[in-house]
Amino acid sequence: MTALPTKRDETWRYSDLEAVARVWPVATHAHVVPAGETLALPILLDAADDAVTIEDHEIEIGASAQAIVHVAITSGRLGRVFVKVRLAEGAHFELTGAIVGGGSDTHEIVTRVTHAEPNATSAQTVRIVLGGQATGSYLGKVAVARDAQKTDATQSAKAMLLARTATANLKPELEIYADDVKCAHGATVGELDAQALFYLAARGIPPAEAKALLLRAFVGGLFEGTPDETRFDAAIDAALEKML
Amino acid sequence: MLKIENLHAEIDGKQILKGLSLAVNAGEIHAIMGPNGAGKSTLGYVLAGKPGYEVTDGTLNFLNFDLRDMAPHARAAAGLFLGFQYPVEIPGVSNLQFLREALNAQRKGRGEPPLSGAEFLKIARAQAAALGLDPEMLKRPVNVGFSGGEKKRAEMVQMGIIDPKFAILDETDSGLDIDALRAVGAGINTIMRKPDRAVLLITHYQRLLDYVRPDFVHVLADGRIVRSGGPELALELEREGYKDIAA
């Protein structure tokens, strides 16, 4: 794929194509996880304000193997992570993602996950905080092939808007051809809870600190206990601080 | 300590308080009683500065501060504490983290140095033990999964840790069983019954007043204080209802 993408392509619909043009074409990183093994793929996009970064990954997960992908996009004009995954029998895929966007940033996580064989599991969790005129998107598709019985796939996407001018696009999609599967998906877009903010204020916590506390609770903890915790949380904290 | 004069307040353009006056001195405990919809909770929210509650007339003085000019967090730092009728659940934020941040924000506002983690933990554990709240619960997210009684005990633990000069307790007795009521009553007495402290107890019922004896009782009806008296007034209300007294 070398032609510049257009908005007619669903996976590029909410992107910043002007920014994309600056770095196009983008190389695809191919990963093969042999049977029984584990791939850990941490992707932290925290480059400077004007940066355009697109990460494109294709992962073949062998039988009973697993791939754990951690994504945090915390700054840059365009930050995009695309992950295409194919799961063999009994394989496991996990994607945990955090997006913090301010200004006129566009940050997006796009996944295409195919359960090709039986007994595979996948879990995708994405939390998005947006201020200013930022756009944050999670476009996740899970396809379950006819033979992929006993698939267990979850998608949970939640976005918090700090300004009415910010935009969140959450699109969990399912395409299921097998009949004995569990596929759960959830998506919510909300604002900071005014009752909680007043409760914190009534105990003496100033507005900026109160918001930071609630937002850290919302995006924090995603990477707790993982090797990426310190690095990712520091980037998330810095991005939140900049926004409040 | 607290002086309210001719307070008029509204929410969404609806007038709730219509000329309320009240003075509370250091060392005093006042109870505000009254029927549903009289404006009791509104009074608490107006004092604490809840957004949406607009003061349209009157004065609100607390320790020579004009509360009308102060943001909610600044009122708390000045020594005002609102005990919530319905304490708010905050998933993902532990009680310890919340209270340490609250206490240190208040200390900063008063120009005092922050407490270290160890100093804070000592205070928090002592207060939890005094109120009969399992100290392990302090590690859990704020009010999440707490029973009604645990939430109210937790409010009192918060009050003990923050150690305010003036507490407004909005129906702290609602939803409590006898043991919790006794513990909460004892908590209020221990923390707040001091010569330099004062309390405004907002309640429907006499029963909390068996444990926390007020110096003054006021009846609030239709946005104004219509009667004031000593503790005997609460008993009279319990006997005869609000209808005749408020009329």
What's this entry about, in short?
Chain A: InterPro entries: Fe-S_cluster_assembly_SufBD (IPR055346), SUF_FeS_clus_asmbl_SufBD_core (IPR000825), SUF_FeS_clus_asmbl_SufBD_sf (IPR037284). The complex is a heterodimer of chains A (244) and B (247). Chain A is α/β, with parallel strands linked by helices.
Distance between the termini of chain B: 30 Å
Q: What is the rounded Rg of chain B?
A: 18 Å
Number of helices of chain A: 4
The CATH homology group name of chain B = P-loop containing nucleotide triphosphate hydrolases
Helix content of chain B: 25-40%
Strand order of the largest sheet of chain B: 6-9-10-3-11-12
Give me the CATH architecture of chain B, please: 3-Layer(aba) Sandwich
Secondary-structure element sequence of chain B? EEEHEEHEEHHEHEHEEEHH
> What is the beta-strand fraction of chain B?
25-35%
Organism (chain B): Sphingomonas natans
Family (chain B): Belongs to the ABC transporter superfamily. Ycf16 family.
Protein name (chain B): Fe-S cluster assembly ATPase SufC
Keywords (chain B): ATP-binding, Nucleotide-binding
What does it look like?
The complex is a heterodimer of chains A (244) and B (247). Chain A is α/β, with parallel strands linked by helices and 244 residues long. Chain A contains four helices and twelve strands. The model of chain A has no long low-confidence stretch (mean pLDDT 96). Chain B has one domain: 3-Layer(aba) Sandwich (Rossmann fold). In chain B, the strands form three sheets. Chain B has a six-stranded mixed beta sheet, with helices on both faces. Chain B has a four-stranded antiparallel beta sheet with strand order 2-1-4-5. In chain B, a hairpin with a 2-residue loop joins β11 and β12. Chain B is globular and about 55 Å long. Chains A and B meet through α2 and α3 of A and α2, β7 and α3 of B.
